[in-house]
Amino acid sequence: MKPDKLTIVRNWILDQLESGAVGGGEQLPPTRDIAVATGVSLLIVQSAIESLSNEGALYKVARHGVYVHPEWQERILQRNVFLFDPLYELPYKRLLADLLAEQLPHLRIVSGFKKGVFELRTTAWLQTHHEEYACMSEIFEALKGSTSEFAQAPFRSCLVKGKLMGIPIIYSPWVIYYNPALLEKAGCRMPHADWTWDEFTASLRQLRRTTDGRRLFNWKPEAFLWMNFILRNGGGLIGTGSEDGRVVIDSIPTRDALVKLRAMLRENGIANDPSVDYVREFIQGDIPYVIHPREIMSVFAEAGFRDWKVAPLPLLPGGTDTTIQATDIFCMRKECADVASAKTLARILLSEEFQDFLAERKYGIPVRLSSARKSVDTQCPVDQLFMREMPKMTSNYSLSSSTLFDLVVSGINDILETDCDIDTKTQELASMVRIFKGLEKKAKKRREQKASAKRALAFSEAYHSDHG
Predict the structure, then answer these.
(1) pLDDT at residue 242 above 50?
(2) Cβ contact 387:403 at 8 Å
(3) From CA 384, how far away is CA 451, in angstroms rounded?
(4) Which one of 83, 150, 263, 270 has the lowest number of neighbouring Cβ atoms within 10 Å?
């Protein structure tokens, strides 16, 4: 299916923005030049400019022309599809683009925008930004057919107060991939099903003799990495024992996890180095460990890389055998004015064709059960490990807003990257979170009171109108 002429012009203009040909605050080429470049009439070019101006990507200056908004990257355009940016290019990006061209040619996968009306996001992002998105329960109910067609676990990560705020397409537990040749060369004991934190740190010390600390494993100050270690030590951020949850950032298990993690990083000179392409260097045989979910196997297969093995994350003494669930989730922003396209896009992502594509490339575990069965070889030791780890997954960071998430993540990263006293800092961070949650609760109560008063006023006005 060919895109309509309005879409052709919109895409041409957006190509100029995303390629950097026209920057924020700069003037767009004259309307006649755009018409010539696209082979479309002046009237349609003007309509395209008008639509992009209405959505905030462009703005007009009387008698001077059309300009690109300085913050165009932050705008949410009705036809944009945003894909989150992992450590590598998503293997399904090309297929999705082809399917959109066939079925939804007015939609565009964007590269320069930071948001879209439709998005593929991660677990932590959706859970902490859920107020920005529309409930997708009705869309999924209309598409799913039998509930037996899809795994249930990944959908729980998308539930917020009983509402389905996104539709998962794949999921996976976190594991550790290792290069047996590098470990053998360093005299390290190979990871095994029940290996411990002490065994892991001992291997890092041995590898440190010949390997730069920045290249021992893919350390980044990100929640998806340190949260796994906090959980496996029996700690957490906010508990789930009550409606709002009890803050446990300053609990003994959480503090102990941060002590162990920071000591391991310091002892081995491990630091975040954005210049290191961990995936590429692991494939090249230069990095011994990579902590990652199953999705990375698609990159290994594409590169023809086979010199790796996999093990569960190390166990911490007195902790719990659990990991954070990694999920790719389809979300629809509240600004969406085209629910029909959302339904079609959801149908594409959950289709047998798309899910089988993910299965063939071993990109996570597809949510469609028939595709998952095609992806998993029950006789393969690697897949056996993933099957054992899947029941141990948890998907709840218990951080209810993006502000709270940023507060906690910055606080934990500060603890790990500085010489601060961990007991004092966790107490301070926990106190700030408790204050924030208290204010958040009061603000919610005020909103509910205003809404209740508004409903009462509307009822009163209706009553008096009916009774003279």
Answers:
(1) no
(2) no
(3) 52
(4) 263
From the number of C-beta atoms within 10 Å of its C-beta (0-12, 13-18, 19+), residue 418 rates as exposed
- As a whole number of angstroms, the distance between CA 59 and CA 200 comes to 56
Q: Are 232 and 261 in contact (CB under 8 A)?
A: no
Instruction: Find the Cα–Cα–Cα–Cα dihedral 406, 412, 416, 417, rounded to 10°.
Output: 30
pLDDT in tens, 149-188: 999 989 998 998 889 999 999 999 999 999 999 999 999 9
CA distance 109 to 116: 9
Q: Is 76 helix (H, G, I), strand (E, B) or coil?
A: coil
Residue ranges of alpha helices (H) inside 363-401 are 369-375, 381-389
Euclidean distance between CA atoms 57 and 73, whole angstroms: 8
Helix, strand or coil, per DSSP, at residue 27? strand
CB contact burial 184-222 (16+ within 10 A = b; e otherwise): eebebeebeeebebebbeebbebbbeebebbbbbbbbbe
Q: pLDDT tens digits, residue range 192-208?
A: 999 999 999 999 999 99
| pLDDT band for position 456 (cuts 50, 70, 90) | low
Q: Which residues contact 342 (CB under 8 A, 6 or more apart)?
A: 118, 136, 139, 332, 336
Helices 42-54 and 5-19 cross at an angle (nearest 10°) of: 60
Take residue 373 and report the two structure tokens written for it. 């069965």
Show the DSSP H helices in 22-92 as ranges.
31-38, 42-54
Strands 167-178 and 393-394: unpaired
State the residue for tokens 């389905």: 164
**86-139: pLDDT as tens digits:** 878 899 999 999 999 999 999 999 999 999 999 999 999 999 999 999 999 999
Q: How many CB atoms lie within 10 A of CB 124?
A: 21
Contacts of 275 (CB under 8 A, 6+ apart): none
Own/partner long-range contacts of 179-182 (Cβ < 8 Å, ≥24 apart): 179/282, 179/285, 179/287, 179/288, 179/289, 179/307, 179/308, 180/307, 180/308, 180/309, 181/285, 181/307, 182/207, 182/211, 182/285, 182/287, 182/288
Strand ranges for 378-437 from DSSP E? 393-394
Rounded CA separation 31/465 (Å): 54
What is the C-alpha separation between 322 and 392, in angstroms, rounded? 5
- DSSP class of residue 53 equals H
Residue 360 has pLDDT above 80, yes or no: yes
